[in-house]
Amino acid sequence: MRHIAQRDLRNVQRVLIQLAEARCLSLNIIWKGNQYTNSSERRGQVPQIIVNHISVGSMASLDAWFTSPNNKVSSAHFGVSKHGDIHQYVKLERMAWTQGISADRIAKAPAAIVREKGINPNLYGVSIEHEGYDGNLSEEQFEASLWLHRYIRDYVKQEWGYVIPFNREHILGHFQIDPVRKSSCPGPKFPWIRLYAMLAKPSWEEQQMEQLRLELQATKAVVADLEARLAVMERDHHLSEVPDWAKASVNKAVQQGLIRTPTPSSHDFFRILTVLDRKGLL
Ligand SMILES: [Zn+2]
Predict the structure, then answer these.
(1) How far, in Å, is the centroid of ligand 1 from the Cα of 113?
(2) Closest CA to 46 of 206, 198, 158, 214
(3) Which of 174, 169, 161 is nearest to 46 (CA)?
(4) How does pLDDT run across 17-38, given as a tens digit for each residue?
(5) Separation of 174 CA from ligand 1 center, angstroms?
(6) Which residues contact 16 (CB under 8 A, 6 or more apart)?
(7) Which of 165, 223, 246, 258 has its CA 20 to 30 A from that of 81?
(8) H or E segment at 270?
(9) What is the chain's alpha carbon radius of gyration, rounded to the nearest angstrom?
(10) What pLDDT shows up at residue 24?
């Protein structure tokens, strides 16, 4: 019985450690908050698309430009470096200035959602810049970007109650909004097929949570079994009459008014009474 309880405790400890690990994984966004003027209100629009870009430059130059007081023209919500670092420049609650186009070109945009909504796509977009030139992401960069897509979806779901669908209509490249000026953003080597394939699968955290859910379910079943066995033991311990070895002590206790009647009780009760008697305390 005891060894089963200790095994359960170990399970619970493992669950807690894994949850802590999952929590740590979610803390790798470095805030570079832009205190200048290159963001604005979403004007009530909910983020509905994630737009991928290529920075055509280094992460250092991206950081410098997006935090420069001279920059009053462009920004992005996030940047992902070749090393897999994620920098955030604009809060998701605000609109970054990344993929805006004029009204006449909105009507001709390749992305259906842009044509249908008919408003500045920055208003309902979340933008990710990737350090590099041709879209050929490093492995660390791809993993970080994949994680970031899921982070954005979770954040938007929590803040606005909207789930950004992970499909080709909502996970876009800049060229699908602005094919005239940005036909090569995020670059010819951007890993679209792999990104869509990975986004379709459950994340590591989701897999872990499912595993933990199953383990907790199993642990609960063990606890329920233990409780049932304990109930049986308690019932068996409840004696229907006073055992012979306790009769003298019970009688003495009744005579002294310590207990009113020799009511049938548990094994332990009679044992304690007998020990007190033997110690001369009755
Ligand atoms: Zn772009």
Answers:
(1) 17
(2) 158
(3) 161
(4) 666 555 445 548 999 987 777 8
(5) 5
(6) none
(7) 165
(8) helix 267-278
(9) 33
(10) 46
**Ligand 1: distance of its center to the CA of 187 in Å?**
9
Query: Which amino acid, 236?
Result: D
Ranges of each domain in the chain: 32-201, 238-282
Q: What does the H/E/C string look like for 126-164?
A: EEEEECECCCCCCHHHHHHHHHHHHHHHHHHHHHHCCCC
Report the C-alpha gap between 186 and 54 in whole angstroms: 4
**Distance from the alpha carbon of residue 151 to the mean position of ligand 1, in angstroms:** 20
Q: Which residues pair with 125 in a beta bridge?
A: 49
Rounded to the nearest angstrom, the distance between the alpha carbon of 198 and the centre of ligand 1 is: 22
Of 86, 184, 160, 170, whose CA–CA distance to 126 is shortest? 170
What's the fold here for domain 32-201?
Lysozyme-like (3.40.80)
Query: Element (H or E) spanning 20, and its range?
Result: helix 2-25
The CA 182 to ligand 1 mean position distance, Å, reads 6
Q: In angstroms, what is the span from residue 128 Cα to ligand 1's centroid?
A: 9
How many angstroms separate the CA atoms of 229 and 47, rounded? 54
Q: CA–CA separation, 38 vs 42, rounded Å?
A: 13
Would you state the pLDDT for residue 17?
62
Distance 101 CA to ligand 1 centre (A): 12
Please identify every residue whose CB atom is under 5 Å from ligand 1, which is an ion: 53, 174, 185
* pLDDT beneath 50: ranges in the chain: 1-2, 23-24, 27
CA of 53 to the centre of ligand 1 (A): 4
Q: Say how many Å lie between the CA of residue 197 and the centre of ligand 1.
A: 22
Query: Identity (one letter) of the amino acid at 272?
Result: I
